[in-house]
Amino acid sequence: MTTTSNNIDASSQGEEVARQNEKHSRSLWEMSESEHFVQFYETDAFLLDSLSGFIDTGLAEGGACIVLATKAHRESLEERLKSHGLDLAAAQTQGDYISLDAAEALSKFMVNGLPDPERFALVFGDMIMRAAEGRHHVRVFGELVALLWADGKRAEAIRLEELWNDLGKLHPFSLFCAYPMHDFGSEVYEAEFTEICNRHSQVIPPESYAALTTSGERLRAITLLQQKANALAVERSRLAAIVESSNDAIVGKTLAGIITSWNRAAELLFGYSAQEAIGKPITLIIPAELRHEEEDIIGKLRQGIRIEHYETVRVRKDGRRIDVSLSISPVKDSAGNIIGAAKIARDITERKELERRKDEFISMASHELKTPVTSLKGFTQLLLRQFKRLDDNETLRYLARMDTQLNKLTKLISDLLDISKMQTGQLEYRMEPFDLNVLAQEIVENVQGMTRTHRLILQKTAEVCVFGDRDRVGQVLINLLTNAIKYSPGADQVIVQIATDETNALVSVQDFGIGIAEAHQEKIFERFYQVNEPAEKTYPGLGIGLYITSQIIRRHRGCLWVKSQKGEGSVFNFSLPLL
Ligand code: ADP
After folding, report:
1. What is the torsion angle, in degrees rounded to the nearest 10, for the CA atoms of residue 15, residue 20, residue 24 and residue 25?
2. CA distance 215 to 13
3. d(CA 412, ligand 1 centre) in Å
4. Residues facing 347 on adjacent strands
5. Cα angle 567-573-574, degrees, rounded to a multiple of 5
6. What's the start-to-end Cα distance of the chain, in Å?
7. 391: which DSSP letter?
8. Residue to substitute in 418, 494, 508, 524 for testing ligand 1 pocket (most ligand atoms within 8 angstroms of CB)
9. What is the residue with the minimal CA distance to atom 14 of ligand 1?
């Protein structure tokens, strides 16, 4: 029984919906006086189709049309009207066609963020009355409500709809309101949506529905939508449960940086309750000196770029700073427009503290090692000189080996000290103009003196003058050359090339060695990162040379990058701005 009666209800309801919709599409052009209808739309093209039909018909009937829209919409509309043969300039001069920027129109009656009824009635009552003089009828297209809604001013948008209705009781006119569907984002605004619909005499669904022509198609579409809505509701509560139980803080925000969701972990991490945080700007938790980060992040999100493991600092409600790692993904609406972001924040305060302690230890240990090693080096040089006089070749050989090992140790200690200084921003650079070719020649000769296995080939062009710290750039070349030799045990040559483009000096160091798999190519520039392939032989080192190299190049406003293929060698490139 119940099923049958439901079926009857559903089918008669469906027919009613279909009848309504047929009426909607007709009514776009042939509307009665004081009609107030709302159009939801997915694409601008669809809105402009409806709108140009609405205005064309109004003007053809000898009426006046008022368009309160964004600049982009007004321009596109006017182009269409002209292409339909309308003399727009004449229509404007005669007062048949009046157009005003939506934001400007809003500013005429908004007081302290709220629509002021008296001002509204004054501004638009007057405008409509004057437009109506001697004319058949007045049609108004307004996007003011949509602007308020997009700004998050939902109650104000609904209030403005009421003001339009009140005005319609005093002066008869037809009103066409439009809301882009993507402004409703991922939230279900059931109450507000119903309110908006209730404030209109007709509701026109977006194109994906309005384009369906038969009642059968429309019934199927409604059923499908109901099924989708049910499935989404279930999925939503499943996702909500995951988000709520996550140990990482998960925060949603709009592209304007307004917080839209805030899970339990976010409450614990930042100290604000969901109620306190939602609706507030995300700058609530960004320290004042890091506010610029937000602009960079939003800029990346707008381009659809995901940000991963971005380490930064945030501030809690109690003012305490916390180290966090952020992963931020753009959130898109069904049409693929980016409408906001989902941010996962992980507390890394403990890890950072450990890192700080490790850095401190490295800095202290390398300082302590420096003095005894320097003194060992001095005494070795002394002994070398003495045994040279005595002509004791065997001892001299041992001493020479000792000296080589001491050189390695000195280089290691100075690298570790450099890293510590880089971490604290204390590494000094002595900037001066110098010829990169001359420096490269010197370094290649020095490094060649230390290797018998490889031939270093330098290919250079004319004078290449750069401005930088000559010793540090030399350090970069030494690092790249020693790596090229170290990681190409089966090869016998390394090629260094120096060239220029309009603005940069370009240096490349090419080896024919073991190469680097793509998965490691970005990471090798990180501190202490070494490629460890289980099947491959191990190479001595600490994984700091390329980190230091990249920091030095960055400090010179240059770039450092690698091109490599596993098993086929690598080309390390860097650029430095020309003087
Ligand atoms: P390391 O002291 O380990 O050489 P680096 O920072 O200089 O430290 O290099 C980091 C890692 O990058 C190395 O451990 C090695 O795996 C890889 N690498 C660097 N240069 C080359 C190269 N020319 N060919 C192959 N792998 C390289």
Report:
1. 20
2. 11
3. 15
4. 324
5. 155
6. 90
7. T
8. 524
9. 530
Report the DSSP beta bridge partners of residue 466: 434, 578
CB distance 558 to 576 below 8 Å: yes
| Ligand 1 geometric centre to CA of 543 (Å) | 7
Q: Tell me, what's the pLDDT at 10?
A: 44
Taking phi first (over 0 means left), then psi (-120 to 50 degrees means alpha), and beta for anything else, what does residue 18 get?
alpha
Say yes or no to pLDDT of 454 above 70.
yes
pLDDT score, position 1? 32
Among 366, 488, 341, 486, residue whose Cα is nearest residue 419: 366
Confidence (pTM): 0.56
546 lines ligand 1 (CB under 6 A): yes
Residue whose C-alpha is closest to residue 547's, from 483, 454, 499: 483
C-alpha 495/C-alpha 457 separation (Å) is 5
467-513 pLDDT per residue, tens: 999 999 999 999 999 999 999 999 999 999 999 999 999 999 999 99
Structure confidence at residue 30 (pLDDT): 60
* 477 CA distance to ligand 1 middle (Å): 14
Q: Is the pLDDT of residue 238 over 60?
A: yes
State yes or no: pLDDT of 38 exceeds 50.
Answer: yes
Cα-Cα-Cα-Cα dihedral sign, residues 271, 329, 332, 242: negative
SS3 percent helix, strand, coil of the chain, rounded to 5, is: 55, 20, 25
Residue labelled with tokens 């270093």: 456
> Which position has the token pair 């920027």?
101
Q: In 287-307, which positions are buried (b, 16+ CB within 10 angstroms) versus exposed (e)?
A: eeeeeebeeebbebbeeeeeb
* Separation of alpha carbons 479 and 547, rounded Å: 10
Question: What is the Cα–Cα distance from 202 to 216, expressed in whole angstroms?
Answer: 21
Q: What is the mean pLDDT of the chain?
A: 89
Measured distance CA(213)–CA(278) in Å, rounded: 42
Average pLDDT over residues 46-55: 91
548/414 Cα distance (integer angstroms): 11
Distance CA 84, CA 128 (A): 25
How would you classify the pairing of strands 138-142 and 259-262?
unpaired
Confidence tier at 8 by pLDDT (50, 70, 90): very low
